[in-house]
Amino acid sequence: MKNKLKYLTAMSLKRKIQTKWFVAANILIALVIICGINIDTIITAFGGDFDKQQPVYIADHTGVAFDSVKTMMNESSKALNTSSKKSSFDIQKTDKNEKEIKEQVDKKDGLGIIIENDKESTLKVTIISKDILDAVDSQLISNAINQTKTSLALADSGISNEQISSIYSSAKIDYEYTKDDVKKGEEGTQMLMQTVFPIVILPFFMLTLFLVQMIGAEVNDEKTTRGMEIIISNVSPKVHFFSKVIAGNLFVLFQGVLLFLYGGLGLLVRNLIGGSDITGGIGSEVGKAMNDILSSSIGSQLAYIIPLTLLLMIITFVAYSLLAGILASMTTNIEDFQQLQTPIVIISLVGYYLAMLANVFGGSLFIKILGMVPFISAILAPSLLVLGQFSILEMLLAIVLCLLTVFALIKYGLRIYKVGILNYSSKDLWKKMFKALKN
């Protein structure tokens, strides 16, 4: 039995890996990932320039607004360009009239800003551009002008510079926690983990759908070509069933490793072709974030969060593959399986969106119960654990429930599989399935 299982598993893996489609698809995926990571370099090679500053000509007829608008626009722009820490504007003061500014803007593809005094609203501003401004630049310029207007209005009211500085300064906020294991100063780290973790588990969600589709298509292919009859005449349905599950999971894990390797290769290519400045900026931000996480109380929790998450994900992969194999055996063609696959996709989507919105539920009993439901617990439970809404005991309970689901799928699903794989008619199919369960 072991030799047959090993042989069928190896054959199933070879059918998936040693094909031109697998090689072609992975070459395409690798190119997409590598090009995506180096998209700015590619665009620059074809004439684009991410470092080119947009000229901005400011005609300040108030005599006092230019410095404030320039400072705020540059600071806001630098805050957005976290990788280069460089303003995207080249701001210049000009004494030209509106007609001359329009000619200059049209010639150099820049922006013109004319600032004038206004009795009713303090400032009257005219923005001149060749085309409609994008939302980011429009909002950035508007904020700079409005803040300048407020500052000038306060100055005209007789308020001192010290008072104006005090008005614009950020309030000092301190946090106190009643929970003993929560440390002060970790609010940003907690928020980072809440934002990043759902993104990290996105590959799991995608690979799950891929696994279900792949096993279903393979079982249906063998049934459609009548190859199933030849296989089952030589091996038991149990061996055939387990070979599909093992091969499917090994393939998905292999594909997941390849995706991470493509990402690493993309970063390596970026450094080799001279994208080190931007990469260095990103690396420093990521490195700082990682240092903040590791030095916080969450850093010590990662020692058990990561292993428990990986364990739950692997068990859930097995559960999904078992379910896919059982459902595929009940169908007579790929179209029927795609209809049965829809509920699986919906369940996965529910789990992913709940993980994204887990913080909204505030650790309610409702979200805790859903966090233990098999098939969605692999996505939802880790997020709840990171948020502190799940304890280790509850995480272990979710793992146990998932293991029990796997056991039930093997025990009862195998009975359905034995009947379904050699069934080529949809007539009285459900009756046959229920009869198989009873027996």
Give your account of this protein's structure.
- This protein is of the alpha/beta class and 439 residues long.
- Helices cover 71% and strands 6% of the residues.
- The chain contains 18 helices and four strands.
- Strand 3 and strand 4 form a beta hairpin.
What's the short story on this structure?
The chain is α/β, with parallel strands linked by helices and 439 residues long. Helix content is 71%, strand content 6%.
Task: Explain the layout of strands and helices.
Layout: H1 2-17, H2 20-37, H3 39-45, E1 54-60, H4 66-80, E2 89-93, H5 98-108, E3 111-118, E4 122-129, H6 135-156, H7 161-168, H8 187-200, H9 202-224, H10 227-232, H11 237-272, H12 276-295, H13 297-330, H14 334-356, H15 365-371, H16 377-387, H17 392-420, H18 429-438
Parallel strand pairs: 1-2, 1-3
Antiparallel strand pairs: 3-4
Helix pairs in contact: 1-11, 2-11, 4-6, 8-16, 9-11, 9-13, 9-14, 11-13, 12-13, 13-14, 13-16, 13-17, 14-16, 16-17, 17-18
* Uncertain residue ranges: 276-287
Count of helical stretches: 18
Instruction: Tell me which oligomeric state these chains represent.
Output: single chain
Helix fraction, binned, reads over 70%
Shape call: elongated
Q: How many beta strands in the DSSP annotation?
A: 4
Largest sheet: 4 strands, mixed
First-to-last CA distance: 24 Å
Mean pLDDT: 78
* Broad structural category: alpha/beta
Q: Keyphrases for this structure?
A:
18 helices, 6% strand, single chain, 439 residues, 71% helix, alpha/beta, four-stranded mixed β-sheet
